[in-house]
Specification:
The protein is an all-beta fold and about 1000 residues long. About 50% of the residues are buried. It has 3 helices and 86 strands. Strands 34, 35, 37, 38 and 39 form a 5-stranded antiparallel beta sheet that branches. A hairpin with an 8-residue loop joins strand 1 and strand 2. It folds into 5 domains: about 375 residues, YVTN repeat-like/Quinoprotein amine dehydrogenase (Methylamine Dehydrogenase, Chain H, 7 Propeller); about 90 residues, Sandwich (Immunoglobulin-like); about 280 residues, Neuraminidase (6 Propeller); about 90 residues, Sandwich (Immunoglobulin-like), CATH 2.60.40.10; about 70 residues, no CATH class.
Length: about 1000
């Protein structure tokens, strides 16, 4: 029971222990922090029922107790810190019964408790063990009661003081003791002397006439009944409410349906029922209405507003279930199971509610086995989030909602209210979640695109309790790119972007050129998509236009090239390590330099340098002489009118690099064949009508092993490609996009992971970064499909590039936009599409109790789906209708072993799955899967533990009760241990049970020695 015993304004606890004969009180130090236990009274015959009330009218709560074994009711008054309490046995010793007494036949059997157990406490007991101020000596209240199980103080005669109501099962009596003042009580007034197994008594105004009636429960005669108070302590005979509840042990009264009168609750042990009886007015009650019929061993019931919604919920202690449970009042007499406060409350015996921590809500107290415990009410929200909106972007699911308001909805603890968004792949897979604290009302999850998810949103308190909103249908995020993630917005006149590992740490750093800042700089990739602030490579690069990287001095790190138009300079910036660079000028005669590119043109293993300059119509190269020295500029061409871009590729397939050029003034895309080291052909035109040709790039777009060409033509807003269909530099051109307003750059990369290069473009006129999916190789037709734009607000987009910036295995996109001074990246959401092809070449071989399965691996995105988490699941299905058995391996593995039943024919299939569990099976086709019948026999030794030093004895038994056999071992090295069976022949590592044996463990066995159902 809970009451303010020391007058400090918070609730202390009283607890009764039946088997060690003690009554404790436990001082609340504030906020639910309790001091160590203090024994208020201890006797050899036990304490079973406690209550605190002001019996003598002095305004201070006294402690009242009864025992299950003798005839005593005692009470103790607080004396303050100096007093000392002593033991007094109250009652007739002739009526005392030892702890080995027999229960009545209809009484539930004794609980299995330790000799010093704190269990078997009745309706009014509960507590946590804490400290005490001191109490008076116990005072005799009654000595004419045999085995009092319940004491309850109430003003039964209406004279303004508290009398004491009792139920005693050994003498089958419900009675009361009149408070006569001066700390004296009358002898017992019996209300009923044939209440067989009287176990619970409670006082409440059941008929609404203003006085307190008596409610009782008696287990031997299965009766819940009441005694009407006629006034001045006169009572009518028993009025049974029900004789149905088998072995009823608790009764309580409360207004459960909110109609203003008191209804009745009962808990019955043998029929596992918690029930209520509706008060229909003037003491007329309905028949029993069950709240729960699976309350195994229900022994105690209580009512309190646990969730703060204004109605009374129901608490129950379930001795055989070891549970403390509650049932939420739904209103109008309807109840729903609210959950378990504890599922390990061994021999739960009593339950009560009180505000122990002074936070304004009701906590729960319980007595179970040898434990008194309390459970803090942490204010769970009562309303699920509403106004929920689900939106998707490539690789993202975003959920927003209206915040909960008020105590009823939010639980009244806004500082701990949180929202948890979770998404689980369908049909299976790891659940993703994000958590935000109120008042935040939006959360985004990074998910696998093109995969259906089940989405839920919880409103929770800090204990993880609260209601759920759940999407009606699955949610699927598209594949594509994230919104812009700005690396820098102060790169004035951003003109070029590139990615390379400048610091040698294994990830791609980002380089940029800033035209207005006359600067070359970089952002250090710090892993996981995180980047440093802007770092400088070189300043004074007047009108920085273009950048490239290569190990120019062959020292093992990447150096940087730049072209700058205002100072007509081609330069290289030596990587000195540690993020520092030293600049070297190659040429200051590249008039209006537009582009720079590194390529080994003479085949000597050293990267040479190519440049394009607009005003002198010049394509030049600098021979790398080694050790960071270069020749003067050597002309490749001086007829590239308005030269804008230069690139290299083996166009004619002769093994050396040729030169590709885009020139704006003559609207030409052309190439120059590398005839021999340092000797180039005349211009060979690819496209003479690329109006304002400004960019050129090369890649094998058709998958035929030859190099195709891409171009951007700014004045006609065109992105084009040219198929090198003969492989000798003969081209056939096609337009990819005629609406790339102010097309400025073009690049090729496998963005969707399907094994062929897609196309990226930057268009300065409409601020767009676009990508075009390559369907040429898939469909064997020259077609690129424009996909949703990567960006539409890259103001003055001038440069685009692709690299795996976040290390997740797919290519992200980079952009440089001149007008908004921004370098940005766009995360590739990845594309875990299901494999398109089932594994082929499935072969099987049988051994004793096993099937060895092998198959051919999938290759390319078109087969595998491009998921780096591709896995194979081999399944054996028995012909006799038994359960299938599987084994799973991650690609690139192409074999696994399935353990099956011998002498049964099995058909075998292999399924290729992505990380979301989607994909085809070899059994989906028309061809019948292979079959095999494993022979009977034994495998080779399967090791459980190769470090079991001195293992001497072994046994197999289901130690954890999960239905399979675990392994038990004894050792020469003085220990016994066990290995948990996970199924399919897999076992956990050794767990030591004991290691203090003096000598060898020669024999070990397992059995249910105590009859509790486990080994």
């Amino acid at each position: 029971h809970a009451a303010d015993l020391d007058g400090d304004g918070d609730l202390d606890l009283l607890a009764a222990a039946a088997l060690d004969g003690a009554m404790y009180w436990h001082e609340n130090g504030g906020g639910g922090e309790f001091t160590a236990p203090r024994i208020l009274w201890a006797g050899p015959l036990g304490a079973a029922s406690v209550y605190a009330a002001d019996l003598n009218g002095d305004g201070i709560a006294e402690a009242l107790s009864g025992t299950p074994f003798n005839g005593g009711i005692v009470w103790h008054a607080p004396m303050g810190p100096e007093g000392v309490s002593s033991e007094t046995i109250v009652g007739d010793p002739a009526n005392a019964v030892g702890s080995d007494w027999e229960f009545a036949v209809s009484r539930p059997p004794p609980l299995a408790l330790p000799a010093d157990g704190a269990g078997q406490s009745p309706v009014q007991t509960t507590g946590i063990i804490v400290e005490t101020s001191e109490f008076s000596d116990p005072r005799v209240l009654a000595d004419d009661i045999i085995a009092g199980r319940s004491v309850y103080p109430a003003d039964l005669d209406g004279d303004g003081d508290l009398d004491v109501l009792t139920a005693s099962h050994r003498d089958a009596t419900v009675g009361w003791y009149e408070n006569q003042g001066d700390r004296t009580f009358s002898t017992r007034h019996a209300l009923e002397t044939n209440a067989q197994g009287a176990w619970s008594a409670y006082a409440a105004d059941l008929d609404g006439d203003g006085d307190l009636d008596v409610l009782s429960a008696s287990y031997s005669d299965d009766t819940v009944g009441w005694y009407e108070n006629q006034g001045e302590g006169e009572f009518e005979s028993l009025l049974p409410l029900s004789r149905c509840p088998r072995t009823v042990q608790s009764a309580y009264a409360a207004d459960l349906d909110g109609d203003g009168d008191l209804d009745v609750l009962s808990a019955s042990y043998s029929d596992d029922t918690v029930a209520w009886y509706e008060n229909q007015g003037e003491g007329v009650f309905s028949t029993r209405v069950a709240l729960a019929t699976d309350a195994d061993g229900a022994v105690s019931v209580h009512a309190a507003d646990l969730d703060g919604d204004g109605d009374l919920d129901v608490l129950a202690a379930l001795a055989l279930d070891d549970r403390i449970a509650w049932y939420e009042n739904q209103g109008g007499g309807a109840f729903a199971f609210g959950g378990n406060f504890d599922v390990e409350a061994d021999a739960a015996w009593d339950v009560h509610a009180a505000d122990l921590d002074g936070d304004g809500d009701l906590d729960v107290l319980a007595a179970a086995g040898t434990t008194f415990a309390w459970y803090e009410n942490v204010d769970a929200p009562t309303a699920a989030p509403r106004g929920v909106r689900v939106t998707t972007r490539p690789g993202q699911i975003t959920v927003s909602w209206e915040p909960l308001s008020g105590r009823t909805e939010s639980g009244g603890a806004p500082e701990t209210l949180r929202y948890v968004l979770s998404a689980t792949p369908i049909p299976d897979g790891a659940t993703l979640s994000c958590t935000v604290m109120a008042p935040v009302s939006e959360c985004t999850l990074e998910v696998q695109p093109e995969t259906p998810y089940s989405v839920s949103l919880f409103a929770e308190n800090d204990a993880g309790m609260g209601p759920e909103w759940k999407a009606n249908t699955s949610v699927e995020a598209p594949w594509g790119f994230s919104d812009a993630r700005d690396l820098g917005t102060s790169v004035r006149g951003a003109s070029a972007v590139h990615a390379a590992d400048l610091d040698g740490d294994g990830d791609a750093d980002v380089l940029f050129a800033s035209w207005l800042d006359d600067m070359i700089g970089w952002f250090d990739n710090q892993g996981g998509g995180r980047f440093s602030a802007k770092l400088t490579i070189a300043t004074g690069v007047d009108g920085a236009e273009a950048i490239d990287t290569a190990d120019l001095d062959r020292d093992g790190d990447l150096d940087v090239l730049s072209a700058s138009s205002n100072d007509n300079t081609i330069a290289w910036h030596e990587n000195m390590g540690g993020g520092s660079f030293q600049s070297h000028t190659l040429s200051t005669g590249a008039i209006l330099a537009r582009d720079v590119h590194a390529a080994d043109l003479n085949g000597d293993g050293f990267p040479d340098v190519l440049s394009a300059s607009e005003h002198d119509n010049r394509i030049a190269w600098h021979v790398n002489l080694g050790s960071g020295t270069f020749s003067a500029a050597l002309d490749i061409a001086t007829d590239a009118y308005g030269a804008q871009a230069v690139h290299s590729a083996d166009v004619d397939g002769d093994g050396d690099l040729d030169v590709l050029v885009a020139s704006a003034q003559d609207d030409t895309v052309a190439w120059y064949a590398n005839l021999s080291p340092g000797v180039f052909s005349e211009r060979r035109v690819i496209d003479p009508d690329a109006d304002g040709a400004i960019a050129v790039h090369a890649a094998d777009l058709t998958g035929d092993g030859t190099v195709d060409v891409l171009s951007a033509a700014s004045w006609e807003d065109r992105i084009a490609w040219y198929s090198n269909y003969k492989g000798d530099g003969t081209f056939d051109g096609s337009t990819i996009d005629f609406n790339a307003d102010g097309a400025w750059d073009v690049y090729a990369a496998d963005l969707d992971g399907d094994g062929d290069p897609d196309v990226l473009s930057a268009s300065r006129g409409n601020d767009r970064i676009a990508w075009y999916e390559n369907t040429v190789a898939d469909a064997n037709s020259p077609y690129f499909s424009r996909q949703p734009y990567v960006a539409t607000d890259a103001e003055g987009a001038e440069s685009v590039y692709a690299a795996d910036l976040d290390g997740d295995g797919d290519l992200d996109v980079l952009s440089a936009s001149f007008h908004d001074n921004t370098i940005a990246w766009y995360e590739n959401a990845g594309s875990p599409r299901a494999p398109a092809a089932a594994p082929d070449g499935v072969s099987v071989e049988a051994g004793p109790g096993r099937i060895e399965v092998e198959w051919q691996p999938l290759s390319g995105r078109s087969e595998s789906g491009g998921d780096p988490q591709l896995r194979y699941v081999a399944t054996a299905t028995p012909a006799d209708g038994g359960a299938s058995v599987s084994c799973t391996v991650e690609a690139p593995a192409t074999a696994c072993t399935i353990h099956v039943r011998s002498l049964v024919e099995h058909s075998v299939t292999v399924r290729a799955e992505n990380s979301a569990g989607a994909g085809p099976s070899s059994g989906d086709g028309a061809a019948a899967p292979p079959t095999v019948t494993p022979e009977w026999g034994f495998s080779g030794a399967l090791s459980l533990d190769e470090g079991a030093l001195g293992a001497l004895s072994a046994h197999a038994a289901d130690l954890d009760g999960d239905g399979d056999l675990d392994v038990l071992v004894g050792s020469f090295s003085d220990w016994i241990g066990w290995y948990e069976n996970h199924g399919d022949g897999a076992f956990a590592a050794r767990r030591i049970i004991a290691d203090d044996f003096d000598g060898r463990v020669w024999s070990i066995h397992a059995a249910d020695l105590d009859g509790d159902g486990d080994l």
